[in-house]
Design brief:
There is one protein chain. The protein is built from two helices and two strands, in the order ααββ. The protein has a two-stranded antiparallel sheet with strand order 1-2. The two termini are about 25 Å apart.
């Protein structure tokens, strides 16, 4: 488990994910990049509709029991 407060919740890049076998292949990374862009667009539009500016956020992905990639983090201001 790499999400660890004592480790400072280290960020993992594409190469870490491949080397540590956290993803099967490049296509899973492509899917996460696609979803990150889509989520970014949706959040920017939502915040703009509330007269707010989205400045920064991070996403955390995981896999469910069927090996589907899912967003596993919360959204909070």
């Amino acid at each position: 488990d790499y999400k660890d407060d004592e480790l400072g919740d280290p960020k993992l890049n594409d190469q870490h994910c491949l080397i540590l076998e956290l993803v099967k292949d490049e296509s899973e990374l492509d899917y996460m990049r696609y979803m990150a862009r889509k989520i970014n667009t949706l959040l920017k539009e939502f915040y703009a509709s509330k007269n707010l500016t989205l400045v920064d956020f991070k996403l955390e992905f995981g896999k469910d029991s069927n090996d589907n990639i899912i967003l596993i983090d919360e959204l909070s201001p």
